[in-house]
User: Which sequence fits this backbone?
């Protein structure tokens, strides 16, 4: 199914995508539009040091939930191969500007 930014909002959204895509303004806006106000967004597929990169990008639309942040250390064999991973769970703010989100997607599309 095609995703149309702003067409649907969900209480729980998961994005297991690498940090390069998660950092794009159009992705931030699309995920914000797809997450219902008060809903949760879980970002995974990121390294612990990349959490600091993503938090400020999502801050206008989401509040971090430190109790739900977690780093994952696999067993010794997995660690040698995969390394450490993190997840960042955010709660969508209820007072953001939906028009600004749509404009961010439009601007990114026009620039890109």
Assistant:
């Amino acid at each position: 199914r095609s995703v149309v930014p702003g067409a649907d909002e969900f209480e729980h959204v998961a994005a297991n995508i690498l940090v390069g895509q998660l950092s794009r303004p159009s992705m931030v806006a699309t995920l914000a539009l797809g997450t219902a106000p008060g809903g949760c967004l879980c970002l995974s597929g990121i390294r612990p040091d990349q959490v600091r990169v993503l938090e400020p990008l999502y801050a206008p639309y989401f509040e971090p939930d430190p109790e739900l942040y977690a780093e994952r250390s696999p067993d010794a064999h997995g660690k040698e191969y995969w390394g450490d991973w993190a997840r960042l769970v955010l709660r969508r703010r209820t007072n953001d500007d939906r028009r600004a989100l749509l404009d961010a997607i439009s601007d990114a599309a026009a620039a890109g």
